[in-house]
Amino acid sequence: MKKYMALTLAAVMAVSGLAGCGSSETEGTNNAAGTQSEAAEGTESAAKTGGEEGITSTELVITYAGSPEIQEREYIMNEYFRAFEEEYGVTVTVDFVAQADGITKIRTEQETGNIVSDIIYADTANIAPYVNGGWMEDISDVVEATGSTYTDMFDDVLTKDGERYFVPNSFDVYVLIANVSALDYLPDGLTREDVEEGITWEQYADWANAIAEGEGVGKTMMPSSMTSSQLLYPMGGMSLAYGGGFPEFTSDGFKDAMGIIAEMAAGNAFYPEQDQYTAVTDPMNAGDVWLAYSHMAPAGTTYNAAPNNFVVGPAPSGSAGVGSTAGAWCYGIQKGAPHQDLAEAFIEYIARPEVNYDFCSNYGGAISTIEEVSDIVSDDDVVMKAGLKILDTANIAGVPSTEYSDWNAVKLLYGDVFNEILSTNEVPSDDYLAEKQAELEALQISE
User: Of the four, 24, 174, 362, 425, which is 20 to 30 A from 64 by CA?
Assistant: First the structure.
């Protein structure tokens, strides 16, 4: 695992996600522990709290710019944040908001001087406004004091002019997940072990088509809902696997990748209701989908709920190898945080390798950003290991959302291309793709 820490990504600016890229659905305010009577005992005399001298704050307020799935939220509220509360004898209050709402919220706090939030949690696709707006504290010394070794993969986004404003907590890539029932339709010569080691996109397409023919209905999917669309990330990863770029629509590599989608469309391999979903979790859990190229967190959620029912492997490879987009989820301290002392203690808490490993394991097997966690990962961490496997040789790109005036508009362009393929069962014409490229370039922010 330590090998991945040396990787550098030119212009890594998000995913999710991952991704992971988070959902944009707005969530309400939640208190991390419900009633906090037990945790609050003794906090009025907290000159020495949790073994740390000088911490007098009794509440930490976190703006969590993302919408975790139900089981993820239960974990972070009932275990991840709760453990911090119990150690320091404090209360953690969490406001779950959509990414755009998080930016608006902190901008308003900074402009009005009414600073409420101490800690900001956001993904790398949405961090630029916080950094460029001057809303965050330089936490370089705080992070250095933790003693943990963080990857520098995302430093182009998280640092500026030598100062660090966010620390990455986890990151993820795309992996293959299949229902074990799908193994009956593997192309000749392939075995479960081949899936776990890595198959090609051509083999993936043959497999998807064989499933559809045998079952009488398509059981592979792309997360093709255009609401909070995540479709461009797997399409971008496929393009990278064939030597194409991301985002872009006219390279030979992109067109070769779209040929794989067209082959599956012609074979009626796609799940008929895939346009209702931005993630594979629900249809895979229900057994409606048997095969997918998925963001690690949704795949991990499905696998961890019923590991005997699924097989997980690295992303399929194309002519240029394995391709994937990648992004990180990160924490920072807001400038002027009312509970600065406790916020710094929180940054130390999340930097502990055992805490970070526990978080990544409970978030579907996300990849740790801390080198020391490599000593904890075991063979039982199936999803995490599948993601790590592709990092040795993969073509990985970040998501340069800050280079475009409207990233959602970029997402919709990918949706246009995908739907054009579904309607024709063919790779779109060069003229069509050139038109989409022009629309993409019109969205770029000029220097």
Answer: 174
What's the pLDDT tens digit per position in 355-397?
999 999 888 778 889 989 988 988 888 888 877 777 767 888 8
Do 190 and 282 fall into the same domain? yes
CA–CA dist 100, 263 (Å, integer): 37
Question: Closest Cα partner for 229 from 293, 277, 298, 285?
Answer: 277
Question: What is the phi/psi pair of residue 330, to 5°?
Answer: -140, 155
- Strand-pairing partners, residue 60, are 92
**Residue-number span of the structural domain to which 180 is assigned:** 174-323
Please say whether the beta carbons of 121 and 68 come within 8 A. Answer: no
| Its pTM surpasses 0.85 | no
Q: Which two structure tokens, joined as six digits, stand for 8?
A: 């550098």
**Side chain identity at residue 199, one-letter code:** I
What is the helix (H) or strand (E) element at residue 172, kind and residue range? Answer: strand 167-172
Q: Is residue 23 located within the same domain as residue 65?
A: yes
Angle, helix 340-350 to helix 81-88, in steps of 10 degrees: 120
C-alpha–C-alpha distance, residues 327 and 296, integer Å: 11
Read off the CATH number of the domain in which 269 is found: 3.40.190.10
* CA-angle at 341, arms to 36 and 123, nearest 5°: 80
